[in-house]
Amino acid sequence: MASFNLSKAEEIKNKITESKAAIVVFSQKGCGACVMFEPTIEEAEKKFPALTIIKYNIREDLEFANESRIQATPTTFFYRDGKFLAQEVGYFRIERLEQILKTHKLID
C-alpha cells in the first residue's frame, strides 16, 4: 500500500476500513521518542509494501487521539480488515515491528 499523513478522524477511519492491513502511528512534534521511531517507520514503508501506514500528528487534530485514548507518544495501533488488533506504546526497532505484524498476521 502506502504511507499517509492524515489529520482528520474521518479520513483515518476511512483509510483503516479500506485497508487489509494497517497501522496508525500517533506522534507529535517535540517528542524525542517519536523522532527516534521515524527510521523504523521509513524502513517499514519499504519492507512491507502491502501495509498501510498512517502517520497521525496528534497536535494537528486531537479528535482521533482522544477517541483512541492516547496517553503517550509514539503509540502504534494495528488493524486487520478494519478491526483493531493491538497497540504498542513507545519507540521500537523494525525487528519488533515485524514480530508484531507476523503475530497478528498482517504480513506473511
From TrEMBL:
This is Thioredoxin. Transmembrane segments: none annotated. Residues 1-106 form the Thioredoxin domain. It comes from the Bacteria. Gene3D superfamilies: Glutaredoxin.
